[in-house]
Amino acid sequence: MKVFLSILLFLSCFTFATRTMAQYYDDPKNHDCLKCHSQQTYSFHNDMMDTEQKRLMNPYLIIDTIQLRNGVHHNFDCTDCHSYEYTTYPHTATLKLEPLSTCLDCHGGDESYAKYEFEKVQEEFQKSIHYKVYGDNFTCAKCHNQHYYAPAARNSSSVVEIVEYSNKMCLSCHNDMKRFSLVSGETKPTVVAIHDWLPNQELHFQHVRCIECHTVVVDSLMVSHNILSKENALRRCAECHSANSMLKASLYKYQNLQERAEDGSVLGMLSNENYVIGSHQIPALKILSLIIFFAALAGIIIHLTFRIIIKKK
Amino acid sequence: MSSENKIYFYPLWLRIWHGINALGIILLIITGISMNSGFEKSFISFKLIITVHNYAGVIVTLNYLVYLFGNLFTSNKKFYIVKPKNFLKRPMKQAYYYAWGMFHGMQAPYPLSEKRKFNPLQKYTYIAVMYLVVPMVIVSGIGLMFPELIFNKIYNISGVLITAVTHSAMGFFISIFLLIHLYIASIGKSPVDNFRSIINGWHHITKK
Ligand code: HEM
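That is the input. Now the predicted structure with protoporphyrin IX containing FE docked in place:
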């Protein structure tokens, strides 16, 4: 019996271990951190008063476990980045002051991440208005939430999806008073009013990334990080609505979208969900229309010639 | 020139409609081609082109109602009635006349009279253009002006793209129609005679 029990114990330890290896967040309610940090409320035993207490969780500290599981960092447990000391509650006050790893601490100079060009991103970012005005306080995390980050631009082939993901990053501050005031003295985001001049504003916001007009496009980078000051943003319609549309250099740089952008066939164009007047011509239809036009013109000229000849006779 | 040889074909409302329509459509064609051409530099700005196109589009649309109600409530509608008899033979005969007959001394097979303002080919073309192509260009144009009205996706295809392609294709057909319309109108008593008619209302007919 003893042997049997110990085998059982061994096996359960083993399965538990492999399970936690695969996914820390399978069962948030039983996760040391998430049992509180994924809930609206949390309960603990107050040793001082010797009572069970239930309190509201600070909404900014609630983690969305579904997004967490879909993010690129889902292989890490909380204490891989946050101090192990957080496992005690109440958390020690000085833990707040401990430095957290930045993106480059892990990803900088790493061969296996070379294609993401972390150093180049850093270099471009340091030229941006975000860095110029707020310096190192403007961390990557201000836009890229490490908990949830997913490389949408690389993986999605849907323009609308990429645009939504990207613009959400900008709007999370530029359309949110509390977060905006973190870095800016201003307390009033005015995105909508500032873009009043733009025709079909809503449609533009849904189909065009903010960075399309607000960054300097660099060929070697997939997503440009050099965010310009608002005076330097693009305002000319023709930058996009033209044959050499800027959008082809930025959004359509992604391989997954490029294939469709360059597929000149009618079907290829039709499955392209992002139509930009002036830059998306359907070559097959263009040729067809030219043929019809010149056929009509030729018909008229021939007819006219005969009319003139007959009249002269 | 005796007055019996003239018929008052084009009442004032029709001439006003036609004049506004012609100017509007010409503006729409020019601005439409220029904004779709993908030229980055044109002598007027993209934004102004769009503004002109939008205003012209609204005017042509409202003006279309003049045509629609005019033909609903006046006797002008009788010229647009199609007879099922020899439905295809009649326009073919007219086409044959244009392509061959008129150069070989053939008499016009459908001479115009009080009862007949258009030859069959002309009638069919006007009906197709005015009751099919123009309405489609108007509807798709309204869609593009208020993109939130458009279906997001039809199967895998962007609704905006379909609307835009429909709009350009119909616009293109109107341009081709206009080209042929202008040329055919020059076939008359004299090359400018029909153009005078659509301005002053009176049409010369050749009496047998
Ligand atoms: C510069 C432009 C134009 C000129 C010079 C012109 C000229 C004429 C002329 C001479 C006529 C009378 C002869 C006939 O009935 O065929 C006419 C009638 C007509 N035109 Fe035009 N046209 C122009 C543009 C257009 C456009 C853009 C449309 C429609 C999209 C159009 C639609 C019509 C129709 C429906 C009639 C017959 C109206 C009726 O009598 O009920 N025209 N046009």
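The first helix of chain B runs from residue 12 to 36.
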